[in-house]
């Protein structure tokens, strides 16, 4: 009768010893004050990949900066990056600086077994960006991916949160992981009920980063508080129509004007930067965001919120999925106990 208890205990210890890769969109950071958000993406199979941009006002204090590198899914491609070691050894550079401090794997799970899941790498580049951002407000830095994984990495996303006394009070919330393609809901909670959302100074913007998406018939639908915002999220706005370049992120160079037809699947209507004000009401204490990818092969791995209100918490759905090494160790442990393409068009 003790075997099940022992089994659960050993599995728990193994999970604690090994890292896990989040499979939903979970909160990374929430910042409140005179804060702003810069998001940009770049993807290609060229060497270097291209230039990634940032907007950081002169004199602003950089609070956090993350570089995401979005690999193609495994096992769809058997040589896709799956671990922080893969990313740290991929030859990724930012402004000529080698990025070898990837320490977190995030990414979505597809409802299609042939696609599998995505293992997107995240590196904290706060110190690096703080050193590079000296003249402001507009920056452009070269990105390289080396040669081994260039066509198995759809691109990079640079996220920068900064504080500037010239900005209005508000919050920036960063989430990453990956919304399950079959659909997931994220709930954002405010510390106090929303003030007058019809005030011209009130703002609520959302940025999504999506990889391995061609857009059009390969799209994601986004609802806010049960109302359709877009049926055309996804595409390759910041890359190209080929594996190794299928990436888009709402941010620099984009408009927060929402798709003119929220039910259209035309990717040209959507740049993954959204205005959430029309979906909010004065007195709201929370709101929900639902996404679903009909083709079950797009990776929504990042969400950034910038709202003129104090965000208290963001409740993710559920679940963590072990990295491959964890799964192997777990399998070996259990045996010991008991045995004593993303193709061009998907």
Q: Tell me the fraction of residues in β-strands, as a range.
A: 35-45%
Structural class: mainly beta
Distance between the termini: 48 Å
Output the helix-strand order. HEEEEEEHEEEEEHEEEEEEEEEEEEEH
Number of domains: 1
- Computed over alpha carbons, the radius of gyration is 20 Å
Number of helices: 4
Q: Unreliable stretches, pLDDT < 50, 5 or more residues?
A: 1-23, 317-346
The count of β-strands is 24
Q: Looking at the structure, what is the overall shape?
A: globular
Average the pLDDT over all residues and give the rounded result.
87
* Fraction in helix: 10-25%
Explain how this protein is built.
This protein has 346 residues and is mainly beta. It has one domain. The protein is built from four helices and 24 strands. It has helices spanning 3-17, 84-88, 126-132, 324-339, and strands at residues 20-22, 26-33, 35-42, 50-55, 61-71, 74-75, 92-94, 97-98, 102-106, 116-117, 120-124, 138-145, 153-163, 170-176, 184-190, 204-211, 220-224, 227-233, 247-249, 273-275, 286-293, 299-307, 311-315, 320-322. The strands form six sheets. Strands 2, 14, 16, 19, 20 and 22 form a six-stranded antiparallel beta sheet that branches. β7 and β8 form a beta hairpin. α1 (3-17) runs antiparallel to α4. The longest helix is centred in the C-terminal third of the chain and has 16 residues, at 324-339. It is globular. The protein starts with a helix and ends in a 7-residue tail after the last helix. Mean pLDDT is 87; it is low at 1-23 and 317-346.
Please outline the helices and strands.
Layout lengths: L2 H15 L2 E3 L3 E8 L1 E8 L7 E6 L5 E11 L2 E2 L8 H5 L3 E3 L2 E2 L3 E5 L9 E2 L2 E5 L1 H7 L5 E8 L7 E11 L6 E7 L7 E7 L13 E8 L8 E5 L2 E7 L13 E3 L23 E3 L10 E8 L5 E9 L3 E5 L4 E3 L1 H16 L7
Antiparallel strand pairs: 1-24, 2-14, 3-13, 4-12, 5-11, 5-13, 6-10, 7-8, 7-12, 9-11, 14-22, 15-21, 15-23, 16-19, 16-20, 16-22, 17-18, 17-21
């Amino acid at each position: 009768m003790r075997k099940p208890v022992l089994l659960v205990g050993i599995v728990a210890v193994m999970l604690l010893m090994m890292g896990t890769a989040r499979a939903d969109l979970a909160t990374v950071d929430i910042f409140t004050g005179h804060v702003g958000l810069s998001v940009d993406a770049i993807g290609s199979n060229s060497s270097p990949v291209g230039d990634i941009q940032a907007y950081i006002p002169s004199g602003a204090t950089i609070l956090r900066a993350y570089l995401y590198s979005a690999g193609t899914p495994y096992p769809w491609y058997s040589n896709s990056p799956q671990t922080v070691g893969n990313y740290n050894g991929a030859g990724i550079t930012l402004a000529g600086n080698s990025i070898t401090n990837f320490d977190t794997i995030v990414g979505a799970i597809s409802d299609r077994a042939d696609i599998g899941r995505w293992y997107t790498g995240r590196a904290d580049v706060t110190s690096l960006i703080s050193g590079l951002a000296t003249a402001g407000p507009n920056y452009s830095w070269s990105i390289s991916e080396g040669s081994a994984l260039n066509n198995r990495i759809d691109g990079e996303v640079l996220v920068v949160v900064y504080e500037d006394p010239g900005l209005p009070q508000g919050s920036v919330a960063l989430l990453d992981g990956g919304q399950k393609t079959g659909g997931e809901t994220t709930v954002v909670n405010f510390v106090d009920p929303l003030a007058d959302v019809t005030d011209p100074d009130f703002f609520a913007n959302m940025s999504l980063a999506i990889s391995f998406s061609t857009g059009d018939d390969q799209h994601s639908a986004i609802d806010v508080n049960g109302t359709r915002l877009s049926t055309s999220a996804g595409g390759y706005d910041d890359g190209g129509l080929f594996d190794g370049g299928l990436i888009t992120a709402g941010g620099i160079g984009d408009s927060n004007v929402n798709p003119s037809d929220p039910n259209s699947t035309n990717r040209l209507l959507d740049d993954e930067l959204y205005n959430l004000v029309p979906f909010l009401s004065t007195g709201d204490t929370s709101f929900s965001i639902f996404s679903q990818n009909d083709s079950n092969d797009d990776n929504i791995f990042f969400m950034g919120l910038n709202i003129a209100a104090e965000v208290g918490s963001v409740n993710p759905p559920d679940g963590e999925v072990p990295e491959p090494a964890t799964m192997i160790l777990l399998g070996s442990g259990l045996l010991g106990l008991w045995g004593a393409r993303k193709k061009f068009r998907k």
